[in-house]
Amino acid sequence: MPPSIPHLDNNKLEQFFGRFVQDLGAVMHAATLLVGDRLGLYQAMADSQWVTPVDLAERTETDERYVAEWLAAQAAAGYAEYDSNSKRFRLSEEQAFALTDEYNPVFFPGGFQAAASTIKDVELIADAFRDGRGVAWGDHHPDLFVGTDRFFRPNYIANLTTSWIPALDGIEPKLQAGARIADIGCGYGAATIIMATAYPASSFVGYDPHPPSVDAARKAAATAGVADRCSFDVAAATEYPGRGYDLVTLFDCLHDMGNPVGAASHIRETLSDDGTCMLVEPFAEDRLEDNLTPIGRIFYAGSTMLCTPGSRAQQVGLALGAQAGETRLRDVLTAAGFSRVRRATETPFNLVLEARP
């Protein structure tokens, strides 16, 4: 006997099906984007000149038939332009800017790389759902580490030294004159290196509990020419060494920690008497219903697959989540002993809080 079909609102069903088609197309397109990124196909079109599949295949030493299908996929997704008269393709200047230079403020293939890593880890996370255990950062697919660095770096390039640090009370003059800064949960060191480049009179040290990330950060600092004033070491947020820091920073990582109150307490203890903690976290309102947005969708998905499992893998396992919101973040900071906390600035993607002892 065929299954019974419930009475459905056809308009709602069609709308939901339309969302499914869009989402399926986005997921399938992500794979083609990563292929283009890995093979240099976008980079070979960075001049925004019209090309045929043969032209692009010759430029990149790839197979023409594959390239033809790839170009059609890019045009269908709006990631390339197509001229039906000449049968040629190109990247607009805007598309080329966003797709080919990972050291610009709007480069976004890194986000796709990080997202794709979560699909590779579906079974890992599904097992954690079944038994409630955590999944440590280092247990994820290696594409996550590289993708996260490439995803967050453009945001830091766009905002860190141009608006976030200037929004802190009295900090930028200190950095210009010469200060001591610790960057906690530094990952591959993107933010640390950006600060070290902008403020050569100051000294910077990044700490992260993931040894491969620290190794990558050291190499990146050497490549950037700032290794003389920017070092990296393996250490947890609750245990890193040193005292008297003028500024301690955390970029998109406090919510990943198992014991954020303990981490914030240790940060307060390591600050100088007039030191500052700059906390950068994903933007979120305090109420769930106010975060049901396109950006909230990204952050809740990432939090499900990465942030919450990561916190659960550590002691305490508080699992703040990537959409904790300002009130919960303030609660963490005040519980840690900070007496002055204010929202210094914000972007559509981040909250920036300033905390002082």
Task: List the defining traits of the structure above.
seven-stranded mixed sheet, Rossmann fold, 13 helices, two-stranded antiparallel ribbon, 357 residues
What does this structure look like?
It is a single chain. The chain is of the alpha/beta class and 357 residues long. The strands form two sheets. A seven-stranded mixed sheet has the order 5-4-3-6-7-9-8, sandwiched between helices. The chain has a two-stranded antiparallel sheet with strand order 1-2. The chain has 13 helices and nine strands. The chain folds into two domains: 10-100, Orthogonal Bundle (Arc Repressor Mutant, subunit A); 109-356, Rossmann fold.
**What is the second-level CATH architecture of the largest domain?**
3-Layer(aba) Sandwich
Rg from C-alpha positions?
23 Å
Category from helices, strands and their pairing: alpha/beta
Number of domains: 2
Secondary-structure blueprint of this entry?
Blueprint: H1 10-39, H2 53-60, H3 64-77, E1 81-83, E2 88-90, H4 93-100, H5 109-120, H6 122-131, H7 143-164, H8 171-177, E3 180-184, H9 190-198, E4 203-208, H10 211-224, E5 230-234, E6 245-251, H11 260-270, E7 271-282, H12 294-312, H13 326-335, E8 340-346, E9 350-356
Helix pairs in contact: 1-3, 1-5, 2-3, 5-7, 7-9
Sum this structure up briefly.
This protein has helices at residues 10-39, 53-60, 64-77, 93-100, 109-120, 122-131, 143-164, 171-177, 190-198, 211-224, 260-270, 294-312, 326-335, and strands at 81-83, 88-90, 180-184, 203-208, 230-234, 245-251, 271-282, 340-346, 350-356. It has 357 residues and is α/β, with parallel strands linked by helices.
